[in-house]
Amino acid sequence: MQQSRYLVFFVRTLFFLCVAIFYTNCNQADLENQCDPNFKGYYETILFKILSGNTSKHCAVNLNQVLPPFFSPAPGHYNEPHFISISTITPGATIYITTDGSDPTDASTLYATPSSIWRLAGQRIRAIAIKPGMDHSPIVEGTYSLLPLKTGQTAIYSSGDDGSFGSGISTNYTGPSANATYPNDYISLDQSTGIIWKTCSQGLEGPTCAINSPGLTTGGITVLTTSCNALNSLNSGNGYAGYNTWRLPTMKELLTTNDASKTSLTIIDPTTLPSTANFAYWASTPYPPNTDRWYLDYSAGNSYATINTNGYYGRCVASLPPIETFSFTDHGDGTVKDNSTGLTWQKCSYGQNNDSTCSGGATPTSWATALTYCSSLSLGSKSWKLPNRNELVSLYDFTKATGPTIDQVTFPNTVSSASGYYWTSTTYAATSNAWYINFTTTFNSIYEGHPKNNSLYVRCVSY
């Protein structure tokens, strides 16, 4: 394989150099300046050095430097899922990356396999290629953004609501799939996010999770964390299904399995994630105000933090966790771009002054009025709508111990008092209600349903 890559590299190099030599023969030479690319001897000398194994510099060209890595697909914004691969055509070179903006070195994270855009969205990915005996490649970098997932709601309850737009990435699950080496081990893959799920909840096994031995594992956060970690020592240390990176999912990962269109058993794909209990599942994400932990309750599709010893269920993941840092660009006109999702947001809440601090008081309003307000907004010469549940929850910061649990520099004066909830365009299972996102810490929920004729706060999103 390595020899094949080297041959491709050599043929490409030879081809481009030959084309360059031919082209320069058609241009007037700059006297006999062998450092002038317009002089045919410039490329002939480089070609001769490569063919003879001479990697000394020719003029300013370093022939002993590893060629720079490149990204595929190209960095940018995407409205469909992709996996990011990083390559170099220098044979035998190793690629290292950072995602925090620092310069990568041979002590940085080793690039091994492609990673989903969903996992790395908004991160400043920097890469370097290194090969012993050669100069390091130049550092390259790229940033990706990806729309949030669809909520699952397709019904239209009012003009301008979630069902009207159907915004987001469609989920795409495959499985259950048995491992070739360990045929009793089943996994399910979410190809939209790259999350590798253990097909069954802890305590169940088989392709349909019908093997009920020893039975569904219930317990506090410690019990389920230990249960997931124990999967890594199975199969003589090779791990369940050949993976030894099993863990309890983060809240961001767990929320991807929730379907807003369902009244109960809100698991988004019961075929690839079968026999899901119609109750609460633990996430590994802490609740910073105290020792509580987050959970997702499939019996109603809502999410809370609660005492970490409660007897809940768990489903494990083996993929690398998402990098959950925020990156925003303030356009200075009352609009803010989220560099992770590519969405453009209204900086200030409805009713506040459109200034740098969002001064003044936000105005609570009914769900219907919120839909109308956002659809008529012309801020920044853009088209606007009320965000759906997945769009608005993408702004939620799980690391904050006090409200508002949102980037307070980017979104100043966000309401954080009791009942300071924000409407989404997604209707609740009880259709007289709609979902809200809770950015306060006076009530320990992420989202819940609320009567549409009551008044909550509004922040619009562009589309």
Category by helix and strand content:
alpha+beta
Q: How many helical stretches?
A: 8
**Can you summarize the main beta sheet?**
6 strands, antiparallel
Q: Estimate the strand proportion.
A: 15-25%
- Apparent shape: globular
Text of the CATH class of the largest domain? Alpha Beta
- List segments where confidence is low: pLDDT < 50 over at least 5 consecutive residues: 1-30
The N- to C-terminal Cα distance equals: 45 Å
The neighbouring-strand order within the major sheet is 13-14-15-22-21-20
CATH architecture term of the largest domain: Roll
Task: Reconstruct the topology from this structure.
Blueprint: H1 2-25, H2 40-52, E1 70-72, E2 76-78, E3 83-87, E4 94-98, E5 109-110, E6 115-116, H3 117-120, E7 125-130, E8 140-142, E9 144-146, H4 162-165, E10 173-178, E11 186-190, E12 195-198, H5 221-230, H6 251-255, E13 280-286, E14 293-297, E15 302-306, E16 328-330, E17 335-338, E18 344-346, H7 367-376, E19 384-385, H8 389-393, E20 421-427, E21 433-438, E22 445-451, E23 461-462
Parallel strand pairs: 2-9
Antiparallel strand pairs: 1-3, 3-6, 4-5, 4-7, 7-8, 10-11, 11-12, 13-14, 14-15, 15-22, 16-17, 17-18, 19-23, 20-21, 21-22
Helix pairs in contact: 1-2
Keywords:
463 residues, alpha+beta, 4 domains, six-stranded antiparallel sheet, four-stranded antiparallel sheet, globular, disordered N terminus
Explained architecture:
This protein is an alpha+beta fold. It has 4 domains: 2-52, no CATH class; 70-146; 179-306, no CATH class; 328-462, Mannose-Binding Protein A, Chain A (Roll), CATH 3.10.100. Helix content is 16%, strand content 21%. It is built from 8 helices and 23 strands. The protein has helices spanning 2-25, 40-52, 117-120, 162-165, 221-230, 251-255, 367-376, 389-393; strands at 70-72, 76-78, 83-87, 94-98, 109-110, 115-116, 125-130, 140-142, 144-146, 173-178, 186-190, 195-198, 280-286, 293-297, 302-306, 328-330, 335-338, 344-346, 384-385, 421-427, 433-438, 445-451, 461-462. The strands form 7 sheets. It has a 6-stranded antiparallel β-sheet with strand order 13-14-15-22-21-20. A hairpin with a 4-residue loop joins strand 16 and strand 17. Helix 1 (2-25) packs antiparallel against helix 2 (40-52). The model is unreliable at 1-30 (pLDDT under 50).
